[in-house]
Design goal:
Number of helices: 11
Distance between the termini: 58 Å
CATH class of the largest domain: Alpha Beta
CATH architecture of the largest domain: 2-Layer Sandwich
Structural class: alpha+beta
Helix content: 55-70%
Largest sheet: 6 strands, mixed
Oligomer: single chain
Amino acid sequence: MGKDNIGRDVLTFLAGNLLDPTPMNYRFGYLYLTRSSKVICEETDTYIENGMRMKQETIVEIMGKHASASDDPEERIAARDEAVELFLNTAGELAREAKRQADGVGRDIAEESQVIREGAQGEDLTGAIRRIIDRAEEAERELSNASNRIDRLQRDLDEARNKALVDELTGIPNRRATRATIQDLEIRKVRYCLGLIDIDHFKAINDTYGHPVGDRALKLVAEALSESLSPWPVARWGGEEFLVIAEVADANKLAERVAEAKETLAERNLKLRETDEPMGPITFSAGVAVNSETSDETLRRADNALYEAKKAGRNTVLIAPESGRVADAA
């Protein structure tokens, strides 16, 4: 299957299963038709072999299994990138099809016009005029349909682009969005501080209560940090790590706010939704660093401070020095 045809092939596959061309469905169709996902191929082949049509709820379930089977934390971002590319390819194909239709209309009208110019009379003249009108009306309908499809693709493309910057689980910005924010600060030569936050003993939460509870814990921490550290943006950096960006030149200011957020979170009385059993407090450790020569260096220093906070017993915030020993914030 050639790359030039993959967009059309995916669109045809979706249409054959009466599926809307949403970003997720495009991704599903792409992975299936290119045989790029063992999970998707096995599940989909079973449906097709049994003569069943793919339904939207089936796609959601299969894509969930695909994401769970992937060890790549950037899988969803890559998925959306490919969805965007497919949208662009398909929109381009629609535009080319519209041009072909317009060229065909032009030829048809030119032929009928030639009949009129050659002196058609009576029924021949009336017929030529009628055919020109009919062809023009048909072309208008075809172009309107193509325009509507392109508008729909554009809306889906905008949605895919927006989703590419948001963590699906927590609803806060993801690593890619954060990288873009940091890059913008550096272009504008704005001083900033980074706070790298890691939930303490998160693996124990998953092991003890299960991954659904772990997911709820991640959402809870994301909400708590976003509220406590506003207006500074908080992003999910990956796994149980979060990153806050503060447009301040003093690392102590950010460290103090992060320490306050840590205490506020630890004071919450958390219970299991299923049994009303107390869970105990959720705590986190954090490393804070003021920006240095590069963002990678700043992140490295914040990560080192976080590592030292974990070594110091967790549930603490440490400031990475621009030189010298790590400082204790809380």
